[in-house]
Amino acid sequence: MNKNTTVIIGGIVAGSIAGLVFLWLAFTFYSSKDGGISFMFFEETILVLFIACGTAASSAVYFRNHFKKDEAVIEKHKNDNKAKDDLISMTLHHIRTPLTGMMWSTKELTVETPADHPQKNRIDKLHEETVRILATVEKLLKTSRENNGRSSYCFEVYSSEKLERLISESISKMKPAAYAKDISVETETSPLSQKAAKIDGDKIITVVQTLFENAVHYTKSGGSIKIRMEEKKDNFFFYISDSGIGIPLEEQKGIFSQFYRSTNAKRTRSDGLGIGLFLAKSFVDAHGGNITFTSNTHGTTFMVRIPTFEPTEQEVSVKPPQEAQQKT
Amino acid sequence: MENLQRVLIVEDDNFLGDLLSDYLKKNEIKTSLAKDAETALKMIHQDKPSLVLLDLLLPGMNGLELLEILKNEGLVPELPVIILSNLSQKEKIEKAIDLGANDFLVKASFDLNEITIKVKKVLGISEHAA
User: Fold this and answer.
1) How far apart are CA A214 and CA A236, in angstroms?
2) Which of A35, A42, A142, A311 falls between 20 and 30 A from A236, CA-CA?
3) Is some CB atom of chain B closer than 8 A to the CB atom of A96?
4) Mind listing the pLDDT tens digit for each residue in A277-296?
5) Domain covering A156-316 assigned CATH 3.30.565.10 in the classification
6) Which of B88, B108, B112 is facing A134, going by the closest CB pair?
7) Hey, is the C-beta of B72 within 8 angstroms of any chain A C-beta?
């Protein structure tokens, strides 16, 4: 017999005994007062009532213990996850410092090594790889912060035009990567209104970069990327379509999960971490928007929606807060 | 003409501190190095540097606490302070700027040459002078 069954039976027995004791007391009291009146109805009702009370009390004890146990398990999992995330975050912070030094050193070496030096290519590659590892560490740190709810957002009021400019400038910086693969990039913007959105510019740039980089990675040479921005009702929409390999239907459900990589993605690019879309979704969600996609074997289209509103005069003229100089 | 200006680098990581110091020296900028905020404060009082390159995560007193002391002593903003940290949270940046920091650079986003250009600009050294 397990502990919970014991608790329930114990509760029923205790309830019944309490009921009988009460009945006996009541019977004695009323017998002495009224001279042995039948209390059949009273007796049964009270007995049932006390058995019910006992059962209810024992059930309450059981469920309380049961949920308490579940809560304890959930709490333990939370604490374990937090400890794991803290450890990862701390390790990444420690790695980032020497990596920064390596990045500074290799950059200096690439600049100082003459083009005809026999080791020039190797030195340049060393620098490229160091920068890549550092960028990966940065991404993992962002993921860790997002998981721990420690991501800090700095929302500013952006007019639709300013938001469009922010995205267009970010795309312009990344176009050379597409051109290097002989992928065409086409951008189209529908006329925008006077509405505004509350956004964190850095986070939106990360979202756009992730989607654009994915489009370049998963589109074959000679393909195309099309970008479209428009406003509909109280929303700003950003679409990015590629003529890439697409996401298999049965795998589409998991693409925003952390560390998830579709079989197509793994085949095309072995070094991805599967955190870009997870972060992009988290960032867009934090803006009250959403990110969706459609995909088939001819390509993929991602849609990012950011809610807009009619800004007050004060909101339009608000001065942006100071930001760190962090190249994107 | 010899540049008499001195940059105090407050950096607890030997590797980064030495790299910064060597690169600035190569650009004819004198440097001194402090590995914690307490030592940095003493050096600021004694040596009167022309600029402080300040890390935020330091053993003991942190960079923002040091900056606050400098502000309360009236040394900042007269003494330019550039924050050079891998922390990039908005609240840290805003706090640093509120306390009078001249600039906030994220280490991993800048190379030595770019940091040196920022330092020279604050010190008023033209690119071709050094």
Assistant:
1) 22
2) A142
3) yes
4) 988 999 999 999 999 999 99
5) yes
6) B108
7) no
